[in-house]
Amino acid sequence: MWARLIPILLLLVKPTVSRVSPYDIDDIERPDNVTGLDVKYYGNIGSYYNGSLIVRISPQRKAHKVKPLDGNACGEYEDRTFEFIWDALVGLIPTAPNAPSPNPFFLSLYAWDEGYRLPNENEPANYSEYQGTWFHTFSSDQKPIFYFGITNQTDNDRSYYFDGHMSTEFMRQLDIPFNASGICTPTSSKEDLLFKGTYMVPDSEAHLEWMRDLSVPTIRGYFNLGRAYISISGYLRAISEETELVGKAEVVFQGQIDNARSDQLLLGKKRPEWNATLGFSVPAGGDVASVAISTKSWKTELQGLVLLLGLALLP
Fold first, then answer.
1. 27-68 pLDDT, tens per residue?
2. Where do the structural domains in the chain lie, given as residue ranges?
3. If 0-12 CB within 10 Å is exposed, 13-18 middle and 19+ buried, where does residue 162 land?
4. 96, 129, 131, 261: which sits with the fewest CB atoms below 10 Å from its CB?
């Protein structure tokens, strides 16, 4: 009888596979088996905020064409401002002690056109490349797309304030693609309203003086237990099929904390710290939801074990 039962027990009692279990102080990742969340967006310890990304672009007449593009899409907005709004998700994540960073925390941002949704881990986006963007400040070579620091004046501040500037390193770009249909006057070509925009940094070798004198794009903001605000300002160059726009651009994120997917943010530190609470709200029963999920899975396995044990003991 026991010879029949032992193989069954070995199949049932399997170690729980986890990317990080238990937590390692030198790691910022969450355990796959505990969170039950889409690792693509919520795979790290930190605070996550849901909100909107407002993009404001002001094409300027003085910014002469860099290449001979003949189109005049959105020409009615020269020396004026147009804007569009996307849904957005921001993650603010601790730096890993075993992977030093020049910044006090990592920042990730996903934005997509209103009316759509973020795809899960295994499906393609349901919106076009002109209806969303993303960037993060993670960097394996310690040269992130932005450099910033905490600017808090006292340890009693109830928010973390930060500011900094964009990297001027080659290939460190922040792209803002957009579809100007419904914003600008229609043109003979629909493709002429599909722009791929990139924030510009000073170029000392540029043949146009205004490109040599550009200011470096800046970033600033704050975040706390309830809200997050991030603003990125600078010059943007956007090119479509026949048109080029160059001018000032501001990207502003405003969002509310997603408590169900955020760890406890500890305030008053020299750099942001989080209590790794597995990213779940505490349910009414008092147990952390992640523990409840683990308990449920063990109950299911135990019920199956009892059932098979009973079958194995039958004559």
1. 787 765 555 566 678 888 899 999 999 999 999 876 555 554
2. 1-36+288-315, 38-281
3. buried
4. 129
